[in-house]
Amino acid sequence: MEDFANLFTQLIEASYAHEQYRDIECINLIASEGIKSPAVKEIMRLCMDLECRYSEGDNDLQGHVKERHYQGQKYITIIENCAADLVKLLFKCNWTDVRLVSGTHANLATFKGLSMATKNRKMVVAPLSCGAHISHDYTGLAGQVLSLEIINLAYDINELNIDVDKSIDIIKAARPGIVTLGASLFLFPHPVKELKEVTEEVGAYLVYDAAHVLGLIAGGEFQDPLKEGADFVTASTHKTFPGPQGGLILGNLTDERMEKAIKAVQRAVFPLSASNVHLARLPAVGVAALELKVFGRELAKQTVRNAQTAGEYLYEHGLKVLGADKGFTRSHQIAVDVRAFGGGKRVAKDLEEANIILNKNLLPYDDQDNRDNPSGIRIGFQDVTRRGFKESDIKYLCDLMLDVITYRRKPQEVKKDVLEFKKQFNKVEYGFNSIKEALEYVERELKNS
Ligand SMILES: Cc1ncc(COP(=O)(O)O)c(C=O)c1O
Predict the structure, then answer these.
(1) Cβ 314 vs Cβ 333: under 8 Å
(2) What is the tens place of the pLDDT at every residue in 297-314?
(3) Which residue among 22, 52, 379, 440 has the highest number of C-beta atoms inside a 10 angstrom radius?
(4) Is the pTM of this model over 0.70?
(5) Domains located in the chain, CATH noted
(6) Going by C-beta distance under 8 Å and a sequence separation of 6 or more, which residues neighbour residue 220?
(7) How confident is the model at residue 179 (pLDDT cuts 50, 70, 90)?
(8) Is residue 198 within 8 Å of residue 172, measured between CB atoms?
(9) Which ligand 1 atom sits nearest the alpha carbon of residue 246?
(10) Distance, CA 180 to ligand 1 centroid (Å)?
(11) Which residues have C-beta atoms less than 6 Å from ligand 1?
(12) Is the dihedral of CA 100, 105, 110, 113 positive or negative?
C-alpha cells in the first residue's frame, strides 16, 4: 500500500500543480494547443454521464446517426446530430463526421477510407521537414500503420510553400489515390485550387489537413479549402478551433464519386478504427462552434495580427524570422531560425525556464532526421490572443523572449517578469462566460431575427 499511496499522492499533487503552472504561470505559445472558454469548460464538466457511454453504429450520408447497436441512445442521438449540424453550418458543408477522437484519427479514417475507395495505396504529401504532420509521412501513420506508399510533393524553400509546377508533374507521374495538403508548420495557404485539376485528372481525392487552422478558416482569415476544391478536410478540434481535444472530417456530398468516398471514410471510422468515440466532448464541440460563429472573425483577425506583429518585431530586433518578404505569416504561427543562438533545442529549453512555452521545430531546409536539435522554433499566438493579448502586449512578450534568446538576461530573471505580466491576463476572451450566457445570446438573436 505504501507504494500505491505515494504514487497516488504524487499524481494528485502533480495534477493540481500542472493547472497552476501551465494555465496561470506560463505563457503558452505552442501552436498546436488551444484554450477553452468558461462555457466550453462548463459543458465539459456537465457531461460526466456521457463520458461513461457508448454509441457504436453507422451514420447516414448527412453525417447523422443512422443505426446504433446499444440501447439508451435517446439523447445521445440528438447530441451527435446537433453537434454534426452545428459543424456543417459553421463550415458551410453538407457532410461531416464528428466521431473522431483526434486529428490523427481523422487522418487515419480519411486515408484508410480513400485508399479503399480508390483501391490505390499511393499518397502524395508535403515533405515532413516542410511542415507536414507525422501522420502524413512514411515514418508515421500513413506509412507505418496504413502501409501507404508516400511520395513527396516538391517544396519551394524560398516561397515557403509547395512548388505548384513541379508538384503537378509529380502527381501526374505518381497517379496517387490521395493528395494531402495542410501542415503543422503552416504559415501560408497551400495551393488547393492550383492542384485540384491534376488531382481530379489522375482520379485522386484531395485532402486538406486543417488541424492547425480550422478556427482561422471558420473566422474567414485563412483559405477555405472546401471552397477552393478540397474533397475532404480533416482537423483537430482543440487548436485554433477552441473546443475539446478531438477531431472531425468535413466534406460535401455532391455526386457519386463523393458518395463512394464518404461511405468508405465512414466505414473507416466505424467499425474499422473506433468503438467508443469519447461522446462527452460533443456538446463542447457545439459550444465552440457557436463561439466561432459569434466571435470567430474578430478572434481570427487578432490572432493573425498578433502573429504578424511578433514576426515583424523579432525580425526588426535581429532574429531570422522566416517569410520576411511575405509578411511573415498568414496564420496563427511564425517560424524563427535560431541557429545563431544555439539552435531550437537550447532556445526552447531556456524559454521554458522563463515560463515561456513553445517548441523547437524543423525548418524547411533542415535534415528531416535532425529532429533533436533543429534550426528553428515555432511560435503560435492562438492562446495568448484568446487571453487578451493585443499588439503592444505581443511586443513586450517579444522583448522578454529576446532577452532569453539573445542571452541578454538569465531565464530565471525573465521568469519573474513573465509571472508578473501574466497576472494581467486572467480571462478568456472571444467566448462565452457560461452556458447560460450562450443560451441567452442565441435566444436574443432568435428574437431579433
Ligand atoms: C497538421 C496536423 N495534422 C494532424 C495533427 C494531429 O492532431 P491530433 O493531435 O489531434 O491527433 C497535428 C497535430 O498537431 C497536425 O499538426
Answers:
(1) no
(2) 999 999 999 999 999 999
(3) 379
(4) yes
(5) 42-286 (3.40.640.10), 296-422 (3.90.1150.10)
(6) 296, 297, 300
(7) very high
(8) yes
(9) 10
(10) 13
(11) 32, 102-104, 107, 133, 135, 182-184, 209, 211-212, 236, 247
(12) negative
